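so my prof wants the structure for this chain in the tokens format not the other one, which i didnt know existed until like an hour ago. anyway here's the sequence
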Amino acid sequence: MTIARRIVRTALLASAAFLLASAAFGVAVQSSPSPTPFRSGTLPRGIPEARLEALDPAGPEDYFDLAEDVADRATGEDERQLARELFALAGVLDPERLGVGAALSLYDLARTDAERRRLLVLARRLEAARAGGPLRPGAAVRERDPEMAAAISAALAHRRLGEGRAARRRLDEAAAVALAERVLAELPGGWEAFAQSLERLEGDGATLPASRAARLRELRVERRMLSGESASVVEDLVVGQGRPLIEIDLDRLDLELGMDRGLAWWRRGRWTDRP
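here's what i got, hopefully its the right format
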């Protein structure tokens, strides 16, 4: 099965599941300063170990292809675990091309609902990062236009307080409307809905009903504008059923996928850092 076919098939399942997914708790772990070789799952029958030993980090797609074969033939948990490790290595070795596919394939092999929710959020974050270019922290709007960013942030705060006229005044004074149109495009309804909400709050003091999810999404947009997506943990604000927010750190994809990219060589039945 090709990578493209695998991603399409898995994405169809993931899209439906994501509508029902809410956040799960993500626990950050510390990576070892020097990778320690470890024993892994086992190969299914019919797949020679020579294929594992031939893997080279310079060809991450080979890890993905072998992971598909192992997953398709797996009949036990040890074999499925090896498939997970191969998908994870493919993702950490080439996150821009294989990260989304790896996360969605791991979704197929997840053992708990919490794992599935986390992997769906991770795939969503990777897809968004891929659409925006290389996986590097974006420059914050505040760094480029500090006065306008402050005005947009103040306008958001005024609207949350029901102060529509004050919100519009801050944007107009800073000539920040054009930038706000772009920054707030991610909100439901984009800038147009935001501007209309300010008109409905012309009397000041009134409030607009908003779900917790909508308010958190607005806070996420504001955070990106002010700080960018830095190397610190990125919060994916998917909420539901009282679960904590999922924390995703795209700069530590090895932790998110569970495999150290430094242990990418298979030698004598284990992953090691030595070719």
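also thought this was worth mentioning. The two ends are 28 Å apart (CA to CA).
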